[in-house]
């Protein structure tokens, strides 16, 4: 079992110290008790487009929704036909520990060779090497070096895609497209970001209310 843990000042700090004392790659058996997840859960299955916006450790709050949407699409239990995960990092190396989780999601997103997931990673420093590249040639992961996301442009781009005639006709060929037409009016934006970004998104999504854009701040928000 793989886990990602954000080290703070208590048990997680002691856990990191133990790993470092073993050179970062030692193996030792320890008994642990995990509970949760805790906090509220945001309904996602009835939205045509879902934008998952994260910065730093905020990715961990978004991963359960990413996987839930993929499984729901594969099982015909969700109306979502587009999921875009946008992740902002200070250094690209900070994302290495999440590669396994993102790769797993991309591998699950293969129903009938139709992909619904796109991932955009913005980072200020570092260098992309082959170990960070996603598996396959699907081109679903985009890296943006020395750039910060333009949240307004990202939202506008997804709204434009939703109303694109070619994309709509493709959806109508899908067996689940009849109920999808009724629910496609909603675009959901879930947020687990630093305070400054959340403030920006509140102002920007307000402009799109007439286009039925809904903003939800998740229970976990990373420290600024």
Automatic annotation (TrEMBL):
<dbReference type="InterPro" id="IPR051410">
    <property type="entry name" value="Ferric/Cupric_Reductase"/>
</dbReference>
<dbReference type="InterPro" id="IPR039261">
    <property type="entry name" value="FNR_nucleotide-bd"/>
</dbReference>
<dbReference type="GO" id="GO:0006879">
    <property type="term" value="P:intracellular iron ion homeostasis"/>
</dbReference>
<dbReference type="GO" id="GO:0000293">
    <property type="term" value="F:ferric-chelate reductase activity"/>
</dbReference>
<protein>
    <recommendedName>
        <fullName>Ferric reductase NAD binding domain-containing protein</fullName>
    </recommendedName>
</protein>
<dbReference type="GO" id="GO:0006826">
    <property type="term" value="P:iron ion transport"/>
</dbReference>
<dbReference type="GO" id="GO:0015677">
    <property type="term" value="P:copper ion import"/>
</dbReference>
<dbReference type="GO" id="GO:0005886">
    <property type="term" value="C:plasma membrane"/>
</dbReference>
<keyword id="KW-0813">Transport</keyword>
